[in-house]
Amino acid sequence: MWLFDCGEGTQHQVLRSDLKISQLTRIFITHMHGDHIFGLMGLLASCGLAGNVQRIDIYGPPGLNEYLQAASRYSHTHFSYPIKVHTVTPGLIYEDKEFSVHCGALHHRITAFGYRVVEKNRPGRFDVEKAQRLQIPPGRLYGQLKRGEVVTLEDGRVINGADLCGDTEVGRKLAYCTDTVYCDGAVELAQDADVLIHEATFAHQDADMAFQRLHSTSTMAAQTALAAEAHRLILTHFSPRYTPGNPVEFRDLLKEARAIFPKTEMAHDFMSYEVPRRRYSVAS
Ligand SMILES: [Zn+2]
Ligand SMILES: [Zn+2]
Question: What is the CATH number of domain 106-121+169-278?
Answer without folding.
Answer: 3.60.15.10
